[in-house]
Amino acid sequence: MPQLKLFKVRDLRKKEQFIIDDAYLNSWARHCGTPATLVYLSLCRHADKEQKAFPSQRFIADELGINVRTVKRGLKALQKYNIVQAEQEREKGKFTNYIYYLVDKSQWNKPPGDKKCLRSHQGTKTDSGPPPYGLSPTKDAHYKDAHLKDNSMSQEATDWNLEKEIQKVLEDKRRHIQIIGVWIEEIRLRPENTEQIQSIIRRNLRPARLLNGYTNEDIHETIEALKNTEYLRKFTLETVLKYIDEVVAQKKKEGPKIIRFEEVRQKDGSVAMRPIYTEKLE
Prior knowledge:
- The protein is α+β, with helices and mostly antiparallel strands.
- It folds into 3 domains: 22-107, Orthogonal Bundle (Arc Repressor Mutant, subunit A), CATH 1.10.10.10; 125-210, no CATH class; 216-277, no CATH class.
- 44% of the residues lie in helices and 13% in strands.
- It has a 3-stranded antiparallel sheet.
- Strand 2 and strand 3 form a beta hairpin.
- The N and C termini lie far apart (94 Å).
């Protein structure tokens, strides 16, 4: 048997290495396709501790040696399965670059009929430290289109009361947890057990903490304006954080209330957000 030459294995402690979920390569990659897998590798590489990445599509294309059209196709597939969510930043009223959020694998959309993906979901566990509002740590639950589903029935599922659990969140001593309770009520999320409500809380901790200084009324009015915005098919608590200052500033002026936002395309091709106000009564 020929003797192997000495070699050095990679050191995973080094900062120049990154992590990609095994579940993606084991199951979802075949459904998302090669462009999506390349793009996902790039986003995983550039993600920060909060699992946000903001390379431009041109940068991703140059890095991978592919064209921008292929990058767009890859991103579309990743968003289809809720593996990645994207939001555009805004500066001086104009949209600039995208921020990409790497979604926890417990919340990826399962391809229809793929039993392997289903097994990956059932085996998913997260380690996110002590759970909020005194609940025991459990695995994350998958949810899609704001309706959380769990096919497994347990004793907890039969005894669990949605209104009481939301009230617990709303009455939590920590303001940022209360804000998540407001968010759950406002967009009518319907978690079906404790695991699922914990998953919602973990997902929204960052924006909720940054919304600490705002009143429930400020948050409510911003959510209502975003609900009425036609081109926003869905939005997150991060979106509320992005637009709440404009709603609050208008309220302080005692001017007409912002009821929605409207997409306005500029001459240079960029997109700006224009607030639409209620008509002033004479």
